[in-house]
């Protein structure tokens, strides 16, 4: 009898860190397919469809301008309120949407996980990548508003630190992925966390200089705020594109270390939970 030559052998995983990066690369086509699926299902059966990518940040920016800029009179460091809030909103929306969606990886995909084999990390990775589409469109809109106000003579001073934008974006995605898969791994047993995620993300936004500049906070409170790993990223974006504030290098370094620790812990926990999650979901 002729021996069969298998191209792939699926074995049980027993270690704490059983992530095969080579296997993830082999499933790149599946990642692309999930990215397309996420984008299509997000706007399926909506009247305006992908226009919501633009409408959402515009409405949010308008609300922040009215509430925080005009009613609360919170300073924007001399920057036009629209571009100040729009940049913060665009960066934060990408982070929060990735975190929220990846936090439900196991529960939302339990059906497909129980039927076919593929590296489970494919789904949260595809979520983070699909979020880049929305981010790209919204960021282009921000650049349009920024150019308009620069032509009008506003004190907007973009600088060469714009070149580190891809690195900031990668860090933001990695941070969202890390926290997201940690929460996803825990929600297989503790469903209460899924309810708390949305509320927690909203509180997290107010602990991040999205609707206010870091310069308005002083003392120990500012230190606590900047230890929030998202805060240095938002401030770095603002300095690079608007010339507002400065890049907090010390806190940015701490943020990078936090991101690496969170991502590593998330991958380890995810790897551990994926072996038995079908028994608890």
Describe the structure.
With 281 residues, this protein is mainly α. Helix 3 packs across helix 4, helix 7 runs antiparallel to helix 8 and helix 8 runs antiparallel to helix 11. The longest helix is centred in the middle third of the chain and has 30 residues. The model has no long low-confidence stretch (mean pLDDT 84).
Q: How does the overall form come out from the CA principal axes?
A: globular
Distance between the termini: 42 Å
- How many E-type strands? 0
Helix content: 55-70%
Any idea what the radius of gyration is?
Answer: 21 Å
Roughly what is the average pLDDT, rounded to an integer?
84
Return residue spans where pLDDT drops below 50 for at least 5 consecutive residues.
none
Q: How big a fraction of the residues is strand?
A: under 5%
Please report the number of helical segments.
Answer: 12
**How would you sum up the major sheet?**
none
Order of helices and strands: HHHHHHHHHHHH
SS content category: mainly alpha
